[in-house]
Amino acid sequence: MNYLKKALRDFVRCKENIINVILLSILLTLIIFGISFRDSLLNFWDDLTNKSYNYRLFLVTYDFNNITEEEALKKLENFPHVVQVFNAKGLSIVGQALNFVDDKHDGYFYIFGAPEDGLPLISGENLKKYEDENVLICPKGFNPDSFASEDNDKSDRINMESYLGITTDLSLAGQQEKEQFTIVGLYDDDYSYSTGEICYSSFKTVQRLNEKYQKEAFESNTQEGIEVFYPIYFVIDDVKNLNNLQILLEKEGLFPENVTRIDSETGSQIISILTVVIIILFFITIIMIIILNLKRLDEKEKELAINTALGYTAKMNALFFLYESLIISCVSFCLALFINIFFSTIIKRILLKGALYFNFHLSINWIGCFLAFLISIFIPLIINLIMLKKISKIPIVEILKE
Amino acid sequence: MKIQIKNLSKTYKMKNKTIQALNNISYIFEGKNFYAIMGHSGSGKSTLIHCIGLLDQITEGEILLNNVPISTMSENEKAHIRATEIGFIFQSFYLNPKLKAYENVMLPMYLDKSINSTIRKSKSLLLLKELGLETRSEHYPKELSGGEQQRVAIARALVNNPSIILADEPTGNLDSDNEKYVLETLKQLANNGKCVIMVSHSDIVKQYANKILYMNNGKLGE
Ligand SMILES: Nc1ncnc2c1ncn2[C@@H]1O[C@H](COP(=O)(O)OP(=O)(O)OP(=O)(O)O)[C@@H](O)[C@H]1O
Ligand SMILES: [Mg+2]
Q1: Domain residue ranges in chain A
Q2: Does B88 reach chain A within 8 Å, measured CB to CB?
Q3: Mean pLDDT score, A189-199
């Protein structure tokens, strides 16, 4: 007997199924969306810490009376996950790119010291080749302006793609003297916290420039009776457990601090809440499917009793019932998938476009889809297996007397 | 087809009493006969029909279908006999509301895998035509009159060419014209060799049936 064909016909003709499908697909949509959103957030934070040099850059304070700068540098150099250590001289210097001065830009920007191959480049070369040379890695959208701020217009940025490989004159730390710098690479400013006014060069270069142009600024000195010390800096690899690293460092008397703070607390809270919501949704869906099947059995009891009188076995009745359940589930699942694809495209296109500094990629999570598919197939299967008993015990005679 | 009933009893055990729906019935129903079972309400007519139709469990005694005791049959064998040897007609028709007339008639045919769907359809359309429902085959039950619905139900009962027709007050919901039509049809079936057992309250049935049986307090008599 062609159960599937018959079940399909029954499914199409039963108006109650529209409500069943809508209810179920809403729940499945929420599950798929929840898992996708959760996963996208996790990826987003991962990307942030993995790809963005800013989030892997820490400054370290320590008790200057107990530990000297050399000791602190040495300790850090030997620390696991620490890929680069440098003192304040290697951090940054202000430059002015004279070639880029126009009516919107005054040419001022920062040159940050960066690890040799720690920048996510979109074109050009990394710093490894240019240990102590006058090279720059610039943002794709360059904004050399001392008034650059977070809310500035992205359209003000200079598209640097055509400037890759060119050499430009810079004056440094406000000094008259000029040096030539070559732009060797571009990084994706979407992944950094910068507003387009940060370029990178090697630590050695930055250190050399600072020593040359503003050496006196870094000497520990006494200003109005207070001794001024400078922190040291380090860059970590993509270690996941930052807390652990922090605890270990603090044991050594070194107090690290993110130069750019990442709000991982809120992040992990959102993730936990989402996880709980998804689990609750799972249970609601399972209960929904159970209720739905019990309700359907109630509605179909008479039909099944008549079928029995016509010669159908309990197994055939159960199979009919199962096929229709599975069709309801499959249709709901497909609908849920469609809704998810539709809405995530809309969200991507409209809501997230330009709304965030960082690329938040909302993509449909296939594990979420698979899980949703599993519950929409396996729960009805299990329920129907349990129902097989119930179906074979339908009080046919009593129902036929009604 | 011979239905042999031997000392058949059926009791319902309630909390504080037992109800004797069938009380030690012995009788032999045979093909080519139109049996009418009459009797007042609660005398056990439906219960007897359900027992013969293998839908209800019997408490004591035995029913033999062509000399095979039903107590030896598995549920699947019983289902097979219901599908091939027995046709049910009910007072309230019991058509599937979601299926068109011809699809309702096709329902029992799905059980025979050897028939393909075109044959199924043409066979049910032919039967409906014979019952005067040629123009109603595509209608849903709610679009049919009571008499038409019962004719669809009769077609459904006949579609697998069973040798026993069990009809529990099939004319109970029909006007006299439709009642006559149904009774004439059943009489025809009996003449063609089927064993027709029909429960009825109406006296007209006496003009059609060749054996009139009376039930009283679970006992069956002529
Ligand atoms: N499930 C049940 N539990 C208890 N008693 C039952 C049950 N089904 C039927 N009975 C009893 O068995 C007896 C026979 O019932 P049955 O339905 O066979 O009567 P009937 O002759 O068909 O009556 P009617 O003409 O009203 O249809 C009745 O007394 C009824 O109360
Ligand atoms: Mg009755």
Answers
A1: 2-49+265-401, 82-236
A2: yes
A3: 75
